[in-house]
Amino acid sequence: GIQVEQSPPDLILQEGANSTLRCNFSDSVNNLQWFHQNPWGQLINLFYIPSGTKQNGRLSATTVATERYSLLYISSSQTTDSGVYFCAVLPNTGNQFYFGTGTSLTVIP
Amino acid sequence: DTGVSQNPRHKITKRGQNVTFRCDPISEHNRLYWYRQTLGQGPEFLTYFQNEAQLEKSRLLSDRFSAERPKGSFSTLEIQRTEQGDSAMYLCASSRRTGYRRETQYFGPGTRLLVL
User: How much of chain A, in percent, has pLDDT values that exceed 70?
Assistant: First the structure.
């Protein structure tokens, strides 16, 4: 199956700092989503972004499908941003979504 | 829209027992997915339903696992003869396609299973 790798695996930030999370995938995809998993395990959908750029408040995401990567930008980070960030992709065939390895973010006050 | 719900939220069982989990998707969503997540890993796909039809199953889904979605509404995931390796968070997600392969998955809170 498709390989989905995220970097960095762990990130510690001071409140107010900015960060960039990366998702690389090994094959062409039709669908890409970014999720935030909070400390209680709930996965929250952040972006549906198979290509292009989107922004939602302090978060924005860019996917360059032809180069097989996506970036998630977090600006002015807050302690509530802590948790694990996953990207999930749907390859061009099949209905199975593949999740990345995740980036664990800790924002300290 | 009350979101995706899962029951129970936690389950502790002894090895060899059967367990069943339930997922209630968002009402207008016709697609439903089950995933398993172990500590430190991303969710792994188990199976997928479109309406009541189970259209895809992962090789991870051994014959001890069975899933159903009668009438295309709620879904159940049963694990027979549980093993300690089944201990994990079981996640359900639902979605509705709004275009070619265009869908956003919404996840439930998960059922955390511990097999002793």
Answer: 100
Nearest to residue A88, comparing CAs of A39, A40, A38, A30? A30
Considering only CB atoms, B109 lies closest to which of A42, A96, A100, namely A42
Contacts of B89 in chain A (CB under 8 A): 41
Asked whether residue B1 carries a pLDDT value surpassing 70, the answer given is no
Query: Is the Cβ–Cβ distance between B108 and B91 less than 8 Å?
Result: yes
Sign of CA dihedral B91, A11, A13, A74: negative
Handedness of CA B86, B12, B23, B110 (dihedral sign): negative
Confidence category of residue A95, pLDDT binned at 50, 70, 90: confident
| A42: region left, alpha or beta (phi > 0 left; psi from -120 to 50 alpha) | beta
Give me the residues of B, 92-111, that contact A with CB < 8 A: 93, 100-107, 109-110
